[in-house]
Amino acid sequence: MKFDPRSFTCGVLIAIGVGVLAFMALGGHGAMSMQMEASTSTGVLPAGTFDSKHVGLHFDYPAGYAQALNHINEGQEDEYHQVVFVKGQQLAQTDAVWEGPPAITIAGIDVPADTNLEYWVMHDKRSNWSMAYPAYAEGDFDKTTVGGEPALSFNYEGQYTAKAVVVLHKGRMYVFAVSWVAQEDQIRQDFENIIHTVKFIDEAN
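Above: the chain sequence. Below: its structure as tokens.
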């Protein structure tokens, strides 16, 4: 295999910065306690299909993104898989890795069988509900579907403006999130395109 310094650099940046992106995207407003037990990353990819039994998802993604797949342990009983997509040129333009560029993050979190979607969103910090816009009063979500399952959506403010779409499927809570700088940023449409192609892999483990 021929060594590609561009892919190597991008992969290193993803590996270093992805813990921060994960922290920011999923409830990151306290001390960082999560640990990445495993992480794999890529250089900038062409358009393709993500397919993982571990995450439990199949979806299409657009060209121009670097990808990282992480196994995260928050220091409790909670362990989950997460996928992060970051635009290649935004990695190159990021002055400080710890600030993290806008990203698309997708987390698959195992939950008890009797978990209620709306209750989980409003009470688990990883949904980022605590930073939701005031317009989203208690129980007032935007309703949509992901992979044929009912889902809840809301916007929130963190380091960037962001949107979360949360769906429950067979004992696993999926949190899809996207952050952006300007309303016209292409990453917003890329996120919607990913959402529309999601299929669940029921034999996920």
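The first strand starts at residue 35 and ends at 45.
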